[in-house]
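Appendix B. Raw example, untouched.
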Amino acid sequence: MKVRLFTIPNLLTLANLVCGSVGVVMALSGGRLTTAFCLMILAAVFDFFDGFVARLLGQSSPIGLQLDSLSDDISFGLLPASILYVLYGRMPSLWLGEGPAAAAAYAVFVVAAFAALRLAKFNIDDTQRTEFCGLPSPAAALLCGSLGLLAERNGLVLPREAVLAVAAAAAWLMVSGIRMFALKFHGFGWRGNELRYSFLAAGAAMIVLLRGYAVPLVIALYVVVSFVRGLACRTNQ
Protein backbone atom coordinates (compact mmCIF):
# COMPACT_ATOMS: atom_id res chain seq x y z
CA MET A 1 0.00 0.00 0.00
CA LYS A 2 1.40 3.36 -1.03
CA VAL A 3 1.64 5.83 1.84
CA ARG A 4 1.48 9.56 1.19
CA LEU A 5 4.01 11.25 3.43
CA PHE A 6 3.91 14.90 2.40
CA THR A 7 0.25 15.75 2.78
CA ILE A 8 -0.77 19.18 4.06
CA PRO A 9 -1.80 17.80 7.49
CA ASN A 10 1.51 15.94 7.83
CA LEU A 11 3.45 19.09 6.91
CA LEU A 12 1.59 20.97 9.65
CA THR A 13 2.44 18.18 12.08
CA LEU A 14 6.11 18.42 11.08
CA ALA A 15 5.95 22.17 11.65
CA ASN A 16 4.77 21.35 15.18
CA LEU A 17 7.78 19.07 15.63
CA VAL A 18 10.22 21.68 14.27
CA CYS A 19 8.84 24.33 16.64
CA GLY A 20 9.24 21.96 19.56
CA SER A 21 12.78 21.00 18.53
CA VAL A 22 13.92 24.60 18.12
CA GLY A 23 12.27 25.41 21.45
CA VAL A 24 14.35 22.73 23.15
CA VAL A 25 17.52 24.29 21.71
CA MET A 26 16.42 27.76 22.80
CA ALA A 27 15.87 26.51 26.34
CA LEU A 28 18.87 24.23 26.85
CA SER A 29 21.51 26.04 24.80
CA GLY A 30 20.42 29.66 25.02
CA GLY A 31 18.38 29.72 28.22
CA ARG A 32 15.76 31.73 26.34
CA LEU A 33 12.66 30.54 28.14
CA THR A 34 10.30 33.18 26.74
CA THR A 35 11.26 32.23 23.19
CA ALA A 36 10.89 28.55 24.05
CA PHE A 37 7.40 29.17 25.44
CA CYS A 38 6.37 31.15 22.35
CA LEU A 39 7.55 28.26 20.16
CA MET A 40 5.46 25.92 22.32
CA ILE A 41 2.40 28.10 21.65
CA LEU A 42 3.16 28.04 17.92
CA ALA A 43 3.54 24.25 18.06
CA ALA A 44 0.12 24.03 19.74
CA VAL A 45 -1.39 26.09 16.90
CA PHE A 46 0.06 23.70 14.31
CA ASP A 47 -1.11 20.76 16.45
CA PHE A 48 -4.68 22.09 16.38
CA PHE A 49 -4.75 22.81 12.67
CA ASP A 50 -3.20 19.53 11.48
CA GLY A 51 -6.21 17.58 12.74
CA PHE A 52 -8.65 20.24 11.56
CA VAL A 53 -7.16 20.29 8.06
CA ALA A 54 -6.98 16.49 7.93
CA ARG A 55 -10.72 16.27 8.59
CA LEU A 56 -11.48 19.11 6.20
CA LEU A 57 -9.50 17.55 3.33
CA GLY A 58 -10.35 13.95 4.18
CA GLN A 59 -6.66 13.14 4.59
CA SER A 60 -6.69 11.46 8.01
CA SER A 61 -4.36 8.47 8.04
CA PRO A 62 -2.67 6.03 10.45
CA ILE A 63 0.73 7.54 9.68
CA GLY A 64 -0.63 10.97 10.50
CA LEU A 65 -1.80 9.72 13.90
CA GLN A 66 1.61 8.25 14.73
CA LEU A 67 3.47 11.30 13.42
CA ASP A 68 1.24 13.54 15.53
CA SER A 69 2.12 11.63 18.71
CA LEU A 70 5.85 11.71 17.97
CA SER A 71 5.72 15.44 17.35
CA ASP A 72 3.64 16.08 20.45
CA ASP A 73 6.12 14.28 22.68
CA ILE A 74 8.82 16.67 21.49
CA SER A 75 6.74 19.86 21.70
CA PHE A 76 4.66 18.99 24.76
CA GLY A 77 6.94 16.53 26.53
CA LEU A 78 10.62 17.24 25.96
CA LEU A 79 10.22 21.01 25.51
CA PRO A 80 8.38 21.71 28.80
CA ALA A 81 10.79 19.37 30.60
CA SER A 82 13.70 21.35 29.13
CA ILE A 83 12.16 24.61 30.34
CA LEU A 84 11.74 23.19 33.84
CA TYR A 85 15.35 21.93 33.78
CA VAL A 86 16.70 25.42 33.04
CA LEU A 87 14.27 26.98 35.52
CA TYR A 88 15.46 24.58 38.24
CA GLY A 89 19.04 25.76 37.72
CA ARG A 90 18.06 29.41 38.14
CA MET A 91 15.99 29.02 41.28
CA PRO A 92 17.02 29.02 44.95
CA SER A 93 16.62 25.93 47.07
CA LEU A 94 15.08 25.21 50.44
CA TRP A 95 17.07 22.04 51.08
CA LEU A 96 18.37 20.84 47.68
CA GLY A 97 21.82 22.34 47.30
CA GLU A 98 24.60 22.03 44.76
CA GLY A 99 26.76 18.96 44.20
CA PRO A 100 25.09 15.53 44.09
CA ALA A 101 21.72 16.98 45.12
CA ALA A 102 21.72 19.14 41.98
CA ALA A 103 21.26 15.95 39.95
CA ALA A 104 17.64 16.09 41.08
CA ALA A 105 17.18 18.53 38.20
CA TYR A 106 17.09 15.59 35.79
CA ALA A 107 13.93 14.35 37.49
CA VAL A 108 11.93 16.98 35.58
CA PHE A 109 12.33 14.89 32.42
CA VAL A 110 9.66 12.60 33.86
CA VAL A 111 7.35 15.03 32.06
CA ALA A 112 8.70 13.87 28.69
CA ALA A 113 8.41 10.20 29.68
CA PHE A 114 4.85 10.47 30.96
CA ALA A 115 3.80 12.57 27.98
CA ALA A 116 4.88 9.65 25.78
CA LEU A 117 2.78 7.29 27.92
CA ARG A 118 -0.17 9.68 27.73
CA LEU A 119 0.03 9.91 23.95
CA ALA A 120 0.43 6.15 23.46
CA LYS A 121 -2.58 5.53 25.70
CA PHE A 122 -4.63 8.06 23.75
CA ASN A 123 -3.88 6.32 20.45
CA ILE A 124 -5.40 3.02 21.58
CA ASP A 125 -8.19 4.32 23.84
CA ASP A 126 -11.47 4.71 21.96
CA THR A 127 -13.14 6.32 24.98
CA GLN A 128 -11.17 9.55 24.48
CA ARG A 129 -12.93 10.78 21.36
CA THR A 130 -15.40 13.05 23.19
CA GLU A 131 -13.47 13.60 26.43
CA PHE A 132 -10.01 12.91 27.79
CA CYS A 133 -8.71 10.48 30.37
CA GLY A 134 -5.94 12.40 32.11
CA LEU A 135 -4.60 15.88 31.41
CA PRO A 136 -3.86 16.42 27.69
CA SER A 137 -0.13 16.82 27.06
CA PRO A 138 -0.46 20.35 25.54
CA ALA A 139 -2.20 21.54 28.72
CA ALA A 140 0.49 20.00 30.91
CA ALA A 141 3.14 21.61 28.70
CA LEU A 142 1.55 25.05 28.99
CA LEU A 143 1.47 24.67 32.77
CA CYS A 144 5.19 23.88 32.90
CA GLY A 145 6.28 26.28 30.17
CA SER A 146 4.39 29.24 31.59
CA LEU A 147 6.52 29.08 34.75
CA GLY A 148 9.62 29.71 32.66
CA LEU A 149 7.89 32.65 30.96
CA LEU A 150 6.81 34.14 34.28
CA ALA A 151 10.28 33.71 35.79
CA GLU A 152 11.97 35.41 32.85
CA ARG A 153 9.42 38.15 32.19
CA ASN A 154 7.85 38.79 35.58
CA GLY A 155 10.53 37.74 38.04
CA LEU A 156 8.62 34.79 39.44
CA VAL A 157 10.70 32.93 42.04
CA LEU A 158 9.99 29.31 42.90
CA PRO A 159 12.15 27.08 45.09
CA ARG A 160 13.68 24.14 43.29
CA GLU A 161 11.50 21.81 45.30
CA ALA A 162 8.41 23.51 43.83
CA VAL A 163 9.76 23.03 40.30
CA LEU A 164 10.14 19.31 40.98
CA ALA A 165 6.63 19.21 42.47
CA VAL A 166 5.16 20.83 39.35
CA ALA A 167 6.94 18.28 37.14
CA ALA A 168 5.66 15.40 39.27
CA ALA A 169 2.10 16.78 39.33
CA ALA A 170 2.02 17.36 35.57
CA ALA A 171 3.37 13.86 34.91
CA TRP A 172 0.83 12.22 37.23
CA LEU A 173 -2.12 14.20 35.87
CA MET A 174 -1.32 13.12 32.31
CA VAL A 175 -1.64 9.42 33.14
CA SER A 176 -4.33 9.75 35.81
CA GLY A 177 -7.82 8.37 35.41
CA ILE A 178 -9.49 11.78 35.80
CA ARG A 179 -12.00 12.33 32.99
CA MET A 180 -11.49 15.79 31.53
CA PHE A 181 -13.85 17.56 29.19
CA ALA A 182 -12.71 18.37 25.66
CA LEU A 183 -13.19 21.77 24.06
CA LYS A 184 -14.95 20.21 21.08
CA PHE A 185 -18.17 22.09 20.49
CA HIS A 186 -21.40 20.37 19.44
CA GLY A 187 -22.55 23.13 17.11
CA PHE A 188 -22.49 26.75 18.23
CA GLY A 189 -25.58 26.80 20.46
CA TRP A 190 -25.52 27.14 24.23
CA ARG A 191 -27.33 23.86 24.89
CA GLY A 192 -24.82 21.05 25.26
CA ASN A 193 -21.90 23.50 25.32
CA GLU A 194 -22.66 25.23 28.62
CA LEU A 195 -19.48 24.01 30.35
CA ARG A 196 -17.25 24.83 27.40
CA TYR A 197 -18.56 28.37 26.94
CA SER A 198 -18.41 29.04 30.68
CA PHE A 199 -14.84 27.77 30.91
CA LEU A 200 -13.71 29.83 27.91
CA ALA A 201 -15.36 32.95 29.33
CA ALA A 202 -13.69 32.42 32.70
CA GLY A 203 -10.34 31.77 31.02
CA ALA A 204 -10.61 34.90 28.88
CA ALA A 205 -11.45 37.00 31.94
CA MET A 206 -8.44 35.60 33.81
CA ILE A 207 -6.15 36.36 30.88
CA VAL A 208 -7.38 39.98 30.68
CA LEU A 209 -6.98 40.49 34.42
CA LEU A 210 -3.85 38.46 35.16
CA ARG A 211 -2.07 38.21 31.79
CA GLY A 212 0.82 35.75 31.96
CA TYR A 213 -0.11 34.56 35.43
CA ALA A 214 -3.44 33.39 34.03
CA VAL A 215 -1.90 30.46 32.12
CA PRO A 216 -1.11 28.14 35.08
CA LEU A 217 -4.32 29.25 36.81
CA VAL A 218 -6.45 28.42 33.75
CA ILE A 219 -4.88 24.95 33.59
CA ALA A 220 -5.51 24.48 37.33
CA LEU A 221 -9.13 25.59 36.82
CA TYR A 222 -9.51 23.08 33.99
CA VAL A 223 -8.31 20.24 36.23
CA VAL A 224 -10.53 21.27 39.17
CA VAL A 225 -13.65 21.72 37.01
CA SER A 226 -13.05 18.36 35.31
CA PHE A 227 -12.58 16.64 38.67
CA VAL A 228 -15.76 18.17 40.14
CA ARG A 229 -17.66 17.31 36.96
CA GLY A 230 -16.51 13.71 37.25
CA LEU A 231 -17.63 13.50 40.88
CA ALA A 232 -21.02 14.95 39.96
CA CYS A 233 -21.49 12.45 37.14
CA ARG A 234 -20.67 9.53 39.44
CA THR A 235 -23.04 10.86 42.10
CA ASN A 236 -25.91 11.11 39.61
CA GLN A 237 -25.44 7.55 38.33
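End of appendix B.
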